[in-house]
Amino acid sequence: MKRALAIVLVLAFLAGAAALGKYILWPERLDTTDLKQLDVDLSLKGVELSQGRDGKKLWNLKASEADYVENTDELTLAAPIITYWGEGEEPPMQVMAPKGQVWQKEDRARMWDGVNGTRGEYAMRADSLDYTGTRREILLTGNVQLVGKTMLANSNTLTYFLENGDFLAQGNVQVIMN
Fold this sequence. Notes:
Helices cover about 15% and strands about 55% of the residues.
């Protein structure tokens, strides 16, 4: 009996010493496993940017979050919504997607993971979007669908020319007119 009591007392002493050491000698450390590894220069929430040229607004961007890497001038976006303005009285084109990137110095943008857009009476869907500001073109790619009041069009790619408001569909083009 004395022996069992001595073993219990020694185990209790060791458990107490271990607990004392953990909380006093080796205190709790910050757990960084939940922190995402960021290799960015700037991380923002609630972003709004716009770009213009010669007194005309070219595009406006809103996103819930953005990470900026200075050496590549790359802005990676979460839930971007971009409005592109064309010439004259043409209605603007507004597009949104779950993910996107903007290279403002190059006047380029990319959106992916399901792009939805509108321009006047037309609604568009595609897998991805590429904007080239030097040519003022928006290229929708992958399962592109264009829906209007009197038509439905499907194609592999759809280019929208901001300068004149024209669309160009290419690759497996199917159009149903009503």
